[in-house]
Amino acid sequence: EKGGHDYFMLKEIEEQPQAVADTLLGHFANGRIVLDEQRLSDQELRDVDKVFVVACGTAYHSGLVAKYAIEHWTRLPVEVELASEFRYRDPVLDRSTLVVAISQSGETADTLEAVRHAKDQKARVLAVCNTNGAQIPREADAVLYTRAGPEIGVASTKCFLAQVTANYLVGLALAQARGTKYPDEVAREYLELEAMPQLVARVLETVEPVRALARELAASPAVLFLGRHVGYPVALEGALKLKELAYMHAEGFAAGELKHGPIALIEDGLPVIVVMPSPKGRAVLHSKMLSNIREIQARGARTVVIAEEGDEAVRPFANHLIEIPASPTLLQPLLATVPLQVFAAEVAQTRGYDVDKPRNLAKSVTVE
Ligand code: F6R
């Protein structure tokens, strides 16, 4: 049942191309993005003037990615917040606010209470969920199901990629409702998404060197992760995977924050994993990251760089280079996250830990 793997999680990492493909399936028909359930009118969707994304843990990281896409495609302001913070605040919401609640289980207590908090103030709720008929989608006004299949490993992997995919679909659904994208533009973005499962599969075919590197770095006291733009949530997710699976001190930073503190942590031999934006995307992101890598390398960091194939400029600054296929900038998290999952799983196994059942953690956090 583990498909020849020692752990469910390793099988689930391999299932990611399918999880992304299945999540897309049926959500684009007759030239339109379609949700699974919609109990609000198209007019109500069109009238949305602000979006809050609420979630916990890995689902929250998928929400951070969503912010970049939704703002870019819809010109709506998007705030992403941990459900446990949102629910105890007094957020400014009304009937034209859309709260997107992301939850694999659909039963996470804080996310569910955040949904109720939003509904009390008449906000509309759209759930992104992997579990049919769970409490959060039941209480939502609209639902888009991720179709990753059951996830047994406590650490979320394939559900993260499915959530990121679903969030793009939510962004396109809003762009379509608001008319900020013409139908042919929505169709073109959808086609880009449809190409991703194959690219995720290509990343999986080339991760063997990541495993070797993980074994080499397994005794490190700490690992830092750096990213910018959509690479920033990827860095946070890479660090979370390493914490929860390998019990290693790991932190993710926005690269632009380095000079504001974290660079003080850099010392000789410290592994720093850097998520490099596409050289063909926004040039400024790429060149700023290059100078960040140069700075940390000059201070002795051992740089592990995840970069697009053909990114020659980054080579001199990468002690270890992990190449991923080219993709549109906004979609890169679907590729860049995969080597980080593999890395964390391999470090954990090298250290002798059960990656399906990390200590102190439960799959579904239904109590607070
Ligand atoms: C980390 C992980 C958790 C969950 C979080 C939310 O690998 O799995 O951080 O993402 O507990 O769970 P759901 O998505 O079920 O609400």
Summarize this entry quickly:
The protein is an alpha/beta fold and 368 residues long. The protein is built from 14 helices and 13 strands. 53% of the residues are buried.
The averaged pLDDT comes out at 96
DSSP helical segment count: 14
Low-confidence stretches: none
Main sheet summary = 6 strands, mixed
Chemical compounds bound to the protein: fructose -6-phosphate
Across the major sheet, the strand order is: 3-8-7-6-4-5
Percentage of residues in helical conformation: 40-55%
Radius of gyration: 20 Å
Dominant shape: globular
For the secondary structure, the number of strands is 13
What is the strand content? Answer: 15-25%
CA distance, first residue to last residue: 32 Å
